[in-house]
């Protein structure tokens, strides 16, 4: 366990763009919703890597009768926003749990939940952005138009 409950919730709040109260509610709902899918070794492994208060939510896990998103729907929280909250909590879980714990939890979940817990790969390195000038694309940029010969062969005026 490398993070406190407060740090975990603050990270969820930052990812989801919500206040601490909503982030804590989301974290608790997601963990209590994931709990019933886990058992035995998987449950012990995942709970051992969570802060104690959040581990208790996972271990207390409610039934699967209500989806995790439905647990979050309420005044000011639509189904789409509830899904975003679930995804934010899952993203923080992927950043918090070990690879072994993630593999254990993903193996037990239905595919729609498991895909939220697959860690994203490292970002591809980007080339530094260079300012572009129109002259850069012009093969004749070194030659000024005013010094070019006239198409008619006479002097430019």
List the helices and strands and how they pair.
Blueprint lengths: L4 H12 L3 H15 L5 H9 L3 H9 L7 H5 L6 H18 L2 H10 L2 H4 L43
Helix pairs in contact: 1-2, 1-6, 2-4, 2-6, 3-4, 3-7
Describe the protein in words:
There is one protein chain. Helix 2 packs across helix 4 and helix 3 runs antiparallel to helix 4 (52-60). The chain has helices at 5-16, 20-34, 40-48, 52-60, 68-72, 79-96, 99-108, 111-114. The chain contains 8 helices and no strands. The radius of gyration is 27 Å and the shape is elongated. It is mostly helical and 157 residues long.
A few lines on this structure:
This protein has helices at 5-16, 20-34, 40-48, 52-60, 68-72, 79-96, 99-108, 111-114. By secondary structure, the protein is mainly α. It has a single domain (5-117), classed as Globin-like, CATH 1.10.490.
Jot down its keywords:
157 residues, mainly alpha, single chain, 8 helices, Globin-like, elongated
């Amino acid at each position: 366990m490398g993070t406190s409950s407060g740090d975990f919730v603050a990270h969820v709040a930052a990812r989801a763009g919500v206040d601490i109260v909503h982030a804590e509610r989301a974290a608790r709902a997601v963990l209590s919703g994931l709990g019933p899918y886990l058992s035995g070794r998987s449950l012990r492994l995942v709970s051992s890597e969570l802060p104690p208060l959040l581990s208790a939510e996972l271990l207390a896990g409610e039934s699967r009768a209500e989806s995790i998103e439905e647990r979050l729907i309420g005044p000011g929280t639509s189904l789409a926003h509830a899904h975003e909250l679930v995804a934010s909590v899952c993203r923080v879980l992927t950043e918090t749990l070990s690879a072994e714990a993630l593999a254990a939890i993903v193996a037990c979940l239905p595919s729609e939940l498991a895909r939220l817990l697959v860690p994203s790969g490292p970002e591809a390195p980007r080339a530094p952005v260079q300012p572009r000038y129109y002259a850069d694309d012009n093969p004749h940029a070194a030659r000024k138009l005013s010094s070019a010969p006239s198409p008619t062969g006479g002097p430019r005026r």
